[in-house]
Design goal:
Layout lengths: L9 E12 L4 E2 L23 E12 L5 E9 L6 E9 L4 E4 L3 E3 L3 E7 L4 E11 L2
Antiparallel strand pairs: 1-9, 2-8, 3-6, 3-7, 3-9, 4-5, 4-8
């Protein structure tokens, strides 16, 4: 990935929402503002070439009356294994969990989520840097 030295490119604050995350894996589609389906996307799931995405925080709300868990993973099409960020993170009934550690995603990375059941809502705040 080439990063220009002439000041070219753009850096934009963005957000993404995934409603009703379930036990099916949802790959984040970086071309959408609100994920239209809670299953694998057919859109721009790989971070595009010459793009860096910095995850600022991920807000996860469990609107159900029962406790749930959530997984966050990163996969790269050039790597044989996924990177587990969170595994079975408990979220109490009617509770919110905020993952506020910064993460960097580069070209060919994919960010995805799995929840133990429906009624888990995910909101992602991030910086999208485009050096193309």
């Amino acid at each position: 990935m080439a990063i220009p030295t002439d000041g070219g490119g753009s850096e934009v604050l963005k957000r993404m929402s995934i409603p009703n995350q379930s036990s099916s894996a949802t790959l984040v589609d970086w071309a959408q503002v609100a994920q239209t389906a809670v299953t694998n996307s057919a859109g721009t799931v790989d971070v595009p070439p010459e793009v860096i995405i910095t995850i600022l925080n991920i807000i996860i709300c469990n609107s159900d009356s029962a406790s749930r868990t959530v997984d966050i993973m990163i996969k790269n099409s050039g790597s044989p294994s996924d990177i587990q960020i969170l595994q079975d993170q408990p979220i109490g009934a009617k509770q919110t969990f905020v993952f506020s550690d910064k993460m960097i995603l580069r070209d060919n990375d994919q960010l995805y989520f799995i929840a133990s059941d429906n009624n888990v809502f995910i909101h992602i705040n991030y910086i999208y840097q485009d050096w193309s």
